[in-house]
Amino acid sequence: MNRDGWWLIAAISPLLLLGGWMLWPDRHEPTLTWSSAETPPGKPREIPSQWHPPVPVSRPGEARFPAENAVEAAQAPVESADIRLDRLQHALANIAVDQDGNLVLDEVALASLQQAFRAVENVDMAMLEELQLYVQAGLAGETGAQAAEILGDYVRYRSHLAKAEAEWSSQQELSPNQRLERTIALRRQYIDPVAASQLFAGEDAHQRYLIAMEDIRSDPSLTEQARRHSFARVREDLRRGTLLVDSSDGAIASQLRTDRERWQQLGLTNETRRHLEQQSLGLVAARDLAGSDPQDWQRRYRQFDQEREVVLRAGLAEDEKQRQIEGLVDTYFTKSERDAAEAWLPPHLRLEAVR
Asked: Could you give the CA distance from residue 146 to residue 198 in angstroms, rounded to a whole number?
């Protein structure tokens, strides 16, 4: 099916009924967000509350602007790139900042970066560095450094994505799922994998949903009953968060479904089951984000899952079960995997991932 056909499917799909997903097309990648049903407590500040007029900047070792011509220095990117710096500020204005001054990378931040890209997409890499310096000068401390870094990373990624898509369009045998996985792999070359996951996990899950639904719809071997059952299973995977992680390995998705059924049969509380599902999803996501060897990771995860099952069946208090399971996580997974499993989604999406 051609690319336009996919967006026809997106337009008529019942996705708006499935947990708050929304579609908003952008030039190369659609903005598909998974919005929290509740506003998280303690709403973070936004960038406008911290922005101040920047001092003139230039790359280290360069004396591009006379010291006495500060106004010209600060405005030079506008003249040479035919863009307005206030558009860039406006584009970044909705990115939230937490209490420690760190950017909150979520679907709102992604929309802001998409808007920023439209404002600066025609600049060359040298000018992009100047714009990054402008952003860093306009925001104090770590906030400025993070904003400049993610802006540069995102613009570079989108620029290379446009070139890659032109090449992929000539490869007729490339399936939609292969295109998606190539896009994710390309993205991780230019954006830190965990940061990319925080920004794009919801969008990628939506794409996997569309692809899976079309595969089922177009499979002539399925009976109508089997088709309805498959549709329901994919909707459940979307609702439960399974599609947030790479689903190209069908064994993982099947294992997550089996685990959910088993935990329910054990009579675990809803809170415990949600915690276990979030833990499993995070560890599966960490496999790719931390660059783990898939076979080694699978071996370790299988051992972990078996020992976790023993703990869950033991006659222990809930808090003691959780303590022992956390110990198993420390035993079987590396620090980089554990860190990725904790940070792969922005906080409010972690609450939404398993409902």
From this structure: 14
**Structure token digits, residue 211:** 């692809």
8 Å CB contact between 103 and 109: yes
- Which residues in 36-50 are b (16+ Cβ under 10 Å) and which e? beeeeeeebebbeeb
Residue 181: count of CB within 10 angstroms of its CB: 15
Q: Quick one: CA dihedral 94, 97, 103, 104, positive or negative?
A: negative
Could you give the CA distance from residue 3 to residue 172 in angstroms, rounded to a whole number? 12
The closest of 18, 10, 90 to 243, measured between CA atoms, is 18
DSSP per-residue codes, 170-207: T-TT--HHHHHHHHHHHHHHHS-HHHHHHHHHHHHHHH
What global pTM score does this model have?
A: 0.75
For 145, the token pair is 């450094």
For 15-25, write each residue's pLDDT tens digit.
332 333 323 33
